[in-house]
Amino acid sequence: MPHLVGDKRVDGKLIDGKAMAAKLREAIGEQVAHLHTHHQVTPGLAVVLVGEDPASQVYVRNKARQAGEVGMQSFEHRLDASVSEQALLALIDQLNQDPAVNGILVQLPLPDHIAETRIIQAIAPAKDVDGFHPINVGQVAIDGQGMTPCTPLGCKLLLEHQLGDLSGQHAVVLGRSNIVGKPMANLLLQANCTVTVAHSRTHDLPAICRQADILVVAVGRPGMVKRDWIKPGAVLIDVGINRIEEDDRTRLTGDIDFQSVQDLAGAITPVPGGVGPMTIACLLLNTLQASYQQLNLPFPDDLAERAWQPQAATTP
């Protein structure tokens, strides 16, 4: 049943992040081939994994596989959990200096004896495809020109594909992490939304969420957002990926109580299959952008928009 979100009509449907990510990767692959053919450059992504965290291993494996599928070089560095901070910093310095590496990602979280802040700041900002370096954080906040964190970027692309121009929408971001909540709020502000950031100390959280035309939830609490938190017709972006053990199997669920809100929402991302695939696609997009910038070439800023057209534009 169609709903109004602000002044826009939406259809109460699932937002298929998996399909959208596949189209974006296809467009990225075309640009990678263009770089290789016309500039003899193959973008390279280096991923560093410290320790044996099972979820991190899955993420790293998926990132490496998808980088290869779009024609990028993938460099994996797997280190023991006991590796020293000094040794990790030395590896990052090596990757910073390597011209074959255009993007560097250090998989978080890191072991307790390693300071994440120090590691993030050691990555060259031009190769910081996670968008976590303070220089990139500042640039994104000021004018949107820095390397944008992958998950918020994926959320923004999903919203723009669903709603088009986001101007004037009231967006509520539930969560204030440096990785998702804060950069998501900045991106929505730059898209001319009216933005409220809510969190664990917010008074009457359900009432705040009910005001949202757009609700982005990133808190890591399974099923926290219930039906009576939702404005009818709101577009819901569920960033949560929570693993629940039941009946000898692991089930993935989001931060939104999907079953109770699906018929009320204007559109909603499922978990899995929503934000997650777009996060990895945007990592590849950032790596491609880093490659262009390091070659002093103009980057095709409309790449994502072109990816979802019925007929993709010709590669420049």
Automatic annotation (TrEMBL):
One of its GO terms (biological process) is tetrahydrofolate interconversion. NADP(+) binds at G175, R176, S177, I241. Residues 149-293 form the Tetrahydrofolate dehydrogenase/cyclohydrolase NAD(P)-binding domain. Pathway: One-carbon metabolism; tetrahydrofolate interconversion. Keywords: Amino-acid biosynthesis, Histidine biosynthesis, Hydrolase, Methionine biosynthesis, Multifunctional enzyme, NADP, One-carbon metabolism, Oxidoreductase, Purine biosynthesis. CDD domains: NAD_bind_m-THF_DH_Cyclohyd. It catalyses: (6R)-5,10-methylene-5,6,7,8-tetrahydrofolate + NADP(+) = (6R)-5,10-methenyltetrahydrofolate + NADPH; (6R)-5,10-methenyltetrahydrofolate + H2O = (6R)-10-formyltetrahydrofolate + H(+). One of its GO terms (cellular component) is cytosol. Gene3D superfamilies: Leucine Dehydrogenase, chain A, domain 1, NAD(P)-binding Rossmann-like Domain. Residues 15-130 form the Tetrahydrofolate dehydrogenase/cyclohydrolase catalytic domain. GO terms for molecular function: methenyltetrahydrofolate cyclohydrolase activity; methylenetetrahydrofolate dehydrogenase (NADP+) activity. Catalyzes the oxidation of 5,10-methylenetetrahydrofolate to 5,10-methenyltetrahydrofolate and then the hydrolysis of 5,10-methenyltetrahydrofolate to 10-formyltetrahydrofolate. Homodimer. HAMAP family: THF_DHG_CYH. This is Bifunctional protein FolD.
